[in-house]
Design brief:
442 residues, mainly alpha, Flavocytochrome B2, Chain A, domain 1, three-stranded antiparallel beta sheet, two-stranded antiparallel ribbon, 20 helices, transmembrane, transmembrane helix
């Protein structure tokens, strides 16, 4: 049995010995983005600056001029943004610009375990994709825009139809299309500020909060104790291989997934409103955008109460489809790295992403499926700000880099990942083998 590990800063105690982090992050488990951000500022301990590698920068005067939008720098002030900086900027122009804002070197070791050596896997891969992306660009193609806007139009048509015909069946179909709309919008909120990312606000979640929980936490610290998409679902969904999981945590989700998964975004919405009313916390932008859908249904419906029922049927369907796909798309299987499992000796960030992500063979190469089911997820994690329409063009150079570093790459099928989600939650024994993408040496 691994030794007991506890974190006095957060009051967490568990028999799981972390392998990515030395101790559980402050405020763990992170049930909202504010807890995660405040805990990260404590753990990174860089004062009023931004840390990138072993240097501190004062980007205060650059916030309003940041090409990606001011939000990224506003929320990360006082933290180590090394992973965010490296994965968001493919070209070297951002590195040159940083020199203007340099404050001083810092000798304190980074809290994050990851490395970005110039001759390492990730930096080598970035150099190889630079000329390709310079030619084809990193932004959305016309196909991406047609798919996103076409799905939104279909959602509106189905929503009006369900209202006029008072049809719960059509409301459910509208919910399926809403799930595709917001999944596709996920592609856009990784990019610089744009209006299409706000399609995500039509759900009971907001692009603003997901830019933190998904883009700044999950994408950068995937499947570790610092991944808010791991901790925010605890204690009902326990993905880390904690030896002290009870039977409900190990097997209960097989039953309660159907009931509880659709309620997760709605519960967070209620908690946000409660925090605003009782604690005076500012609501995230777009918190009430989804009620525009209720207004639209009410206009065409026979009564407000019928409209409300159709609205809830629509959204509960959307949440179920969205989270069902999200939780089985790429990250959870006993063969995939989760904090507590044996970690590779070389913690290159790109290699660690390969350890924590798997691609599904069924969706690769189909842009509609890629956009609506979190497809081509490995390349998306390595280059999150690059539009999904450009990822398939990068597979040859990606596989070339894998071969150069003697890293095998293979796909999983969706049924395997679906079953793997439940196997991982039932798992109470950390994997003692190296991650699947490390070549074993006898």
């Amino acid at each position: 049995m691994p030794p007991h590990q506890s974190d006095p800063k957060s009051g967490v105690g568990t028999n799981l010995k972390l392998t990515a982090y030395k101790e559980f992050p402050t405020n763990y488990p992170h049930h909202n983005v504010d807890l995660w951000l405040s805990g990260k500022r404590i753990d990174d301990n860089v004062g009023p600056y931004w840390r990138i590698h072993n240097k501190l920068y004062d980007l205060t005067d650059f916030v309003d001029r940041h090409p990606g939008g001011r939000m990224w720098l506003e929320v990360t002030k006082g933290t180590d943004i090394t992973e965010a900086f490296e994965s968001s900027h493919v070209s070297e122009s951002a590195e040159k610009l940083l020199k203007k804002f340099y404050v001083k070197d810092i000798s304190t070791p980074r809290n994050s375990p990851y490395t970005f050596h110039e001759d390492g896997f990730y930096k080598t891969f970035k150099r190889k994709v630079q000329p390709i992306l310079k030619e084809i660009g990193t932004g959305p193609s016309w196909k991406t825009l047609v798919i996103q806007d076409g799905l939104a139009l279909a959602f509106v048509v189905l929503t009006v139809a369900c209202s006029v015909l008072s049809s719960y069946t059509l409301a459910a179909f509208a919910g399926v299309f809403l799930s595709m709309v917001i999944t596709c919008a996920h592609n856009f909120f990784h990019q610089k500020d744009n209006w299409r990312m706000h399609y995500f606000d039509l759900s009971f979640s907001t692009a603003h909060e997901w830019r933190v929980s998904h883009a700044l936490s999950h994408h950068l610290y995937t499947n570790t104790a610092n991944d808010i998409e791991i901790s925010t679902l605890e204690p009902l969904w326990e993905f880390l291989p904690k030896p002290d999981k009870n039977l409900l945590q190990r097997y209960g989700s097989i039953v309660y997934d159907l009931v509880l998964v659709p309620l997760v975004p709605l519960c967070q919405h209620v908690l946000n409103i409660y925090a605003a009313c009782v604690k005076g916390k500012a609501l995230p932008p777009g918190e009430f955008a989804q009620y525009s859908v209720l207004i639209m249904i009410s206009i065409f419906s026979q009564s407000f109460w019928l409209a409300l029922r159709l609205f809830m049927a629509l959204h509960l369907t959307a949440y179920f489809v969205f989270l069902f796909i999200g939780l089985t798309a790429a990250h959870h299987h006993p063969d995939i790295f989760h904090d507590g499992d044996k970690m590779r000796d070389n913690p290159d960030w790109g290699l660690c992403q390969l350890d924590a992500v798997r691609d599904r063979m069924e969706v690769t190469g189909n842009l509609l499926m890629v956009l609506t089911t979190f497809g081509e997820h490995t390349l998306h994690h390595l280059l999150p700000t690059v539009d999904h329409s450009k990822l398939n063009s990068l597979y040859p150079v990606f596989l070339e880099t894998c071969k150069e570093f003697n890293i095998p790459f293979s796909f999983m099928n969706w049924p395997t990942l679906f079953a793997g989600k439940y196997l991982q939650m039932a798992n109470i024994t950390p994997n003692s083998n190296y991650p699947g993408y490390k070549v074993k040496v006898s």
